[in-house]
Amino acid sequence: xxxxxxxxxxxxxxxAPDFRILETHLSFDLIxxxxxxxxxxxxxxxxASDAPLVxxxxxxxxxxxxxxxxxxxxxxxxxxxxxxxxxxRFTLETEVEINPKDNxxxxxxxxxxxxxxxxxxxxxxxxxxxxxxxxxxLSKYTVRIEAPKAGFPHLLSNGNLIDSGDLPEGRHFxxxxxxxxxxxYLFALVAGELDVLxxxxxxxxxxxxxxxxxxxxxxKDRATYAMDALKRSMKWDEDTYGREYDLDLFMIVAVRxxxxxxxxxxxxxxxxxxxxxxxxxxxxxxxxxxIESVIAHEYFHNWSGNRVTCRDWFQxxxxxxxxxxxxxxxxxxxxxxxVARIKDVKMLRARQFPEDAGPLAHPVRPSSYFKIDNFYTxxxxxxxxxxxxxxxxxxGPATYRKALDHYFETNDGTAATLEDFLKSFEVxxxxxxxxxxxxYTQAGTPALSIDSHYDAANQxxxxxxxxxxxxxxxxxxxxxxxxxxxxxxxxxNGAPLGFTVDGVAHTDYLYVLTGDKAELxxxxxxxxxxxxxxxxxxxxxxxxxxxxxxxKFARFKGDSDxxxxxxxxxxxxxxxxxxxxxxxxxxxxxxxxxxxxxTLDQAFKALxxxxxxxxxxxxAMSPVDPQFIHSRRKAFKSALSHSLYDDLIxxxxxxxxxxxxxxxxxxxxxxxxxxxxxxxxxxLLDLLLAGHAQADADRQAHLEGRLQYHYQxxxxxxxxxxxxxxxxxxxxxxxxxxxxxxxxxxxxxPLVIDKWFAVQAACAHPETLDRVERxxxxxxxxxxxxxxxxxxxxxxxxxxxxxFHHPSGRGYDFVVNQILSVDRFNPMTAARLVDVFSAxxxxxxxxxxxxxxxxxxxxxxxxxxKNVAELTEKALRG
Length: 878
Ligand code: TRP
Ligand code: ZN
Known about the structure:
Number of helices: 27
Mean pLDDT: 97
CATH architecture of the domain at 1-45 and 52-192: Sandwich
Low-confidence stretches: none
Bound molecules: tryptophan, zinc ion
CATH topology of the domain at 1-45 and 52-192: Immunoglobulin-like
Largest sheet: 8 strands, mixed
Distance between the termini: 15 Å
Strand order of the largest sheet: 6-5-9-3-2-12-15-14
Strand content: 15-25%
CATH superfamily of the domain at 1-45 and 52-192: tricorn interacting facor f3 domain
Shape: globular
Structural class: alpha+beta
Number of strands: 36
């Protein structure tokens, strides 16, 4: 392990800046290997009169430095530029040279497909110029960009274009001015050859905003869905939060090489092309769904992040948790609240719960870090969103809106904290919200248990709530958190059962547990009830409720809360798979009834026939044996497939001629109902194929025929991918032929070829261990493009537990080698894969030891980045 890691950054060390930057004038002379950046900063002292001026800068070659026009010599380290003695008000001008072409970190100014682009969040601006690169230094920017016209016809930055024109020798320039004060992490620049899709939006107050989406040449048609999603987002934020857009121009640029999903730079969002470009032939319904939500997310940041930004990076969830909550609300309104909620909770449990239960557990507001890039986690984003959701649940929608209005109005133009956020709830309710701060400062998922006692003679149900949070690294002691629990009662047949609390009648009741333990009494409960607790998953906790399976079946069959209906099915399946306990035929019967229930929508049915994933199951097993989980799940799924065979076939066929076939083509529509129908049909295909290995020869031939038909007649990427994935059940030559055919058809489409790589890496066949090695020497493989790298390595490590956790340790070796090789040029992306080893303490032999050995091998390597070193060390120590 390297020992030269500096001290961590600590929240408790926060100190307000000593200087403010009133104006920032940047000038770029764009040359791929030697870009010149001039920065003229109007600086004013606001702190101690003897404070030195310290600017941050990395990998910059200083060409000149003047203060009020006079040349200076500064103290320069690899990370700072210091002028010990400066006046209270002055102009500082620096000129630096940088090399965007060689910058494969994809942070700062870099090149992607021959274009210049930037990524500054969190600390990338310091790779562009010397600056107080911290979110509480807000400045007004003007940006002049100069480049050759050939190759760089578009020159973009934040705000409004105020001047542009030709220069001698085939060059040109553009001058941009952003009237809003912003932190450096929201700076953006793009220059290159692009096609632009244009539209406009008129805001509620009647202002016309020009909308421009820039994409690779020839790809304009693939931006229409993103444009539509953008306009719907703009309208939704006005209707739901009263938030209008504030500039006359809003631009989005899609780039191929990008470390994350997208970035909310003021007026100039930059997107990973995979989250922007879509048409039926290249994007699946899931891609459309993600595009819609990410477009909304980045747009919503204009208020939650840009107009109100973060005081320091410890407050990251102030913008991310809130913005995720806002985008989830949008997706729920677009696609159905219940289905959206189930998907969000699945994701929370798959990614955030394990994080909270392992050595990398950290509070939503961490107290220290080495590299802030490592804290763009499911905890900050998803758990952060859950906290906002709980606040909304306890105060109700109308008061929530008032609190948010107050928050945006009182903090507009400032860099705020979580305390400021909670304060708005206090102001509008007059109540004390300080207990909620604990949700931000305490790591770990609370376990909530509910014990019930029914007194038939008095028709009284007494519920006893107990909460407990297990220790996490450096937080041995935990306190009680406020937990909102929405409750209802059912009869054993699944019908609603009314009750009264404090004399008031309810069918659905919100209880908020505040201490470690408390009792709630429900009166007038006319029969022994089935309890439906934590409806809509009102708190991110692990619920345990002691009850007979018949109660779970009652909820599975008839809970009016769709979330708990789905949840009951999941819990039953989990016990059937892991413990081989319970009534598998009752489960099949309940599922059959659900599939026949015409009141349920197809997207919901598609979710409920999806069994818990191997990752879900791993969380319920201790110690984890990934091979056991894989084989038990596979056997259960196969048996379920056979017992429902006729029903699955009948339903599959009933959905078959609804317009997604080439012999009966209807125009593709990405709307939620059509996507739900495709999702159900594809989920049925998947469950049918899960029975392939155990089927007799006739049935096997029949299933293969259906699959070929599904593949050949698919006329959209959703169905084609479902079929390609279906071939993994059959494997062998049929699978290879399908892959070869697909590759031949799609080889010129990088986003589709990513999917082709990912299907293979996620195939749970032991042969995949050899295959991934072949895939990384495929001519189309390129580790420098994160999308492609993740398509192989992340898909293998995260979506293929049975092969990744091979008892030989070969899967681990492969991933370690990949992390180490990518760390040499892209630490941010490499570090995000370290997490796949972090649960080593929870795994059975030989896996746990081999996972630890893998981490040790990373730790012992030479020249590790700070990013990878921090996570590896924590994963080993925790
Ligand atoms: N702020 C971005 C978001 O909307 C996340 C992001 C994009 C990011 N690129 C990044 C974070 C690079 C860190 C580094 O969620
Ligand atoms: Zn965000």
